[in-house]
Design brief:
Layout: E1 2-7, H1 17-21, E2 26-33, H2 43-62, E3 67-71, H3 74-85, E4 87-93, H4 98-114, E5 117-121, H5 143-152, E6 167-168, H6 195-200, H7 205-218, H8 223-226, H9 239-243, H10 249-263, H11 266-288, H12 310-318, H13 324-336, H14 341-354, H15 359-369, H16 377-386, H17 401-408, H18 413-418, H19 453-469, H20 476-484
Parallel strand pairs: 1-2, 1-4, 2-3, 2-6, 4-5
Helix pairs in contact: 3-4, 5-11, 10-11, 11-16, 13-14, 14-16, 15-16
The structure holds flavin-adenine dinucleotide.
Flavin-adenine dinucleotide binds next to α9, α11, α14 and α16.
Length: about 475
């Protein structure tokens, strides 16, 4: 009665239904490192995955399990493994990307042909997106009613504790060869750019729990008011832990609700849970539009005249646009694999509106450099910022990077931390260093603005206004359907 637990983005013991299902009998706990996935992980996420797998292997071993890593195509490996192990069941946590859904369906069918049962569980979201529908049974396209419905459906399922004991089955003879985590090539070597990431993060379930504890103790009460402030740690920084499933959203929600009771932090808790709601909403959108990272949600944007400007894109990526809050964010991202949400909004708006560059260029850079790069949240947020997304920011919202900096980093502490050239600059000029008189402490190495704010804003508004006059285009499937119906 051997079971297989197929681990993916759920590298934890706590509140892990797939592991619980296999706790009673001997099981194989398998991670298949797909060398040819639909969208390969970016560099920062690869770094995180390597560390997370190592932490999970240790935690699993401590309760009698054993993490077996195999590199290759899951569709070939899993059925072969099930056959060699004489497995009777395979368990996994559901994923929401189109390619992953298709892979899982094909593997389930292959297992059925072998006479092996499969069972999947929701462990990644508070609610399965299929369960959150409008009165008419349609998926939601607007956040507020989506989240209202999520909350109206009753309390979120309570998280389950980690199994106390697991039983590792022996690795079968003739089964695919196992790989060493260190041999997967996940860590950067030449050059090794991961020093800043290692300083900033502790990947793994224990690191996730510690982050949650710290946030609930120190950050929850003031979260609603303080979350947009850039200096200090005003948010939970749980996003990469959630990305790799090192902590479950149900555990976070339950711990947040309990902490809010004790600390009278209901406003903070409500706001914080609604941010988790945005994560749920992004996954619900991905399910509705599988090519969210390539295709505009709003087809009007298919006609948008994005510019091509490689030097401007390079300046944005490297944090050398001359706008301190944008550059500080881009350098924080490069160094730590993370960027504060407010700065993601400002930097995203700057790329798409001030520079007029395609949101897909920004999405791709974030995909490569964010530890939390997520196939739902990254494109959904990029499209939101660009104006092409579901429930998106209106096109005329062009963030002013100077005013945003002054509002959310009034003393310039965030800018000084990430831009040493400006460390000595008086706070009056910190968000517009080009206005500083000589002797105010502006570093000469810091670039002048690559675009003028007022001119860039006017250009963006003109381009977006032109877009509004363009009739909406239909998707190919809608065109086909229209043709068919005459
Ligand atoms: C252009 C852009 C790209 C983004 N790309 C990603 C991404 O690839 N992966 C990712 O997890 N988040 C992404 N976000 C959302 C958000 O910036 C991060 O989730 C957040 O900054 C993570 O920090 P935190 O854990 O301290 O958040 P907290 O403020 O502590 O929020 C708690 C959790 O809620 C979720 N959350 C918060 N805001 C959002 C949001 N707007 N959309 C979806 N989930 C949210 C995250 O899981 C987060 O960990 C992006 C936002 C923008 C504007």
């Amino acid at each position: 009665m051997t079971a297989i637990v197929w681990l993916r983005d759920d590298l934890r013991l706590d509140d892990q239904p797939a592991l619980r299902a296999a706790a009673a009998a001997p099981a194989l706990f398998v991670y298949v490192f797909d060398r040819n996935p639909a969208r390969p992980l970016g560099g920062a996420a690869r770094w995180w995955l390597g560390k997370s797998l190592a932490a999970f292997a240790t935690a699993l071993a401590a309760i009698g399990g054993r993490l077996d890593v195999v590199a290759g195509d899951p569709e070939a490996i899993l059925p072969a493994l099930a056959r060699h192990a004489g497995a009777t069941a395979v368990y996994w946590t559901r994923r929401y990307g189109a390619a992953e859904i298709e892979t899982d369906a094909r593997i389930a069918a292959a297992m059925r042909r072998e006479g092996v049962a499969t069972q999947s569980f929701n462990g990644q979201l508070l609610r399965d997106p299929e369960a959150v529908r409008t009165g008419a049974g349609a998926p939601f396209k607007v956040f507020t009613p989506f989240w209202r419905r999520c909350c109206e459906l009753g309390p979120f399922e309570a998280p389950h504790a980690a199994p106390r004991k697991l039983h590792a089955a022996p690795w079968p003879h003739n089964a695919p060869r196992r790989a060493d985590i260190d041999d997967l090539g996940l860590q950067p070597t030449k050059p090794d750019w991961s020093g800043g990431l290692a300083q900033a993060w502790a990947p793994g379930e224990a690191g996730a729990r510690a982050r949650l504890r710290r946030f609930l103790d120190d950050g929850l009460r003031d979260y609603a008011e303080a979350r947009d402030q850039l200096a200090g740690e005003t948010t939970s920084r749980l996003s990469p832990h959630l990305r790799f499933g090192e902590i479950s959203p149900r555990r976070i929600a339950a711990a947040t609700e309990a902490a809010a009771q004790g600390a009278h932090a209901h406003r903070g808790a409500e706001k914080f849970l609604s941010e988790l709601g945005w994560r749920e909403f992004s996954h619900a959108l991905l399910l509705q539009q599988p090519d969210l990272a390539q295709k505009n949600w709003n087809p009007r944007f298919d006609a948008f005249p994005w510019r091509r400007d490689p030097p401007a894109l390079a300046a944005w990526r490297r944090g050398r646009t001359g706008y301190p809050v944008v550059d500080a964010g881009m350098r924080e991202l490069w160094t730590t694999g993370y960027m504060h949400n407010r700065v993601r909004l400002i930097a995203g708006s700057f790329l798409t509106k001030h520079l007029g560059l395609d949101w897909r260029d920004g999405e791709a850079w974030f995909w490569d450099t964010l530890c939390d790069a997520d196939e739902a949240s990254n494109p959904a947020n990029w499209q939101w910022v660009a104006g092409s997304g579901a429930d998106a920011a209106p096109y005329f919202r062009v963030f002013n990077p100077i005013l945003q900096g002054e509002k959310f980093d009034p003393q310039g502490a965030y800018v000084r931390r990430w831009i040493p050239e400006l460390a000595g600059l008086d706070a009056r000029y910190i968000h517009a260093p080009w206005t500083a008189p000589t002797g105010a402490g502006a570093g000469r190495a810091y670039p002048a603005p690559i675009v003028n704010h007022a001119e860039a804003r006017a250009r963006a508004l003109a381009a977006f206004a032109g877009l509004d006059a363009t009739p909406p285009q239909r998707s190919p499937s809608a065109r086909k359907a229209a043709k068919k119906s005459g």
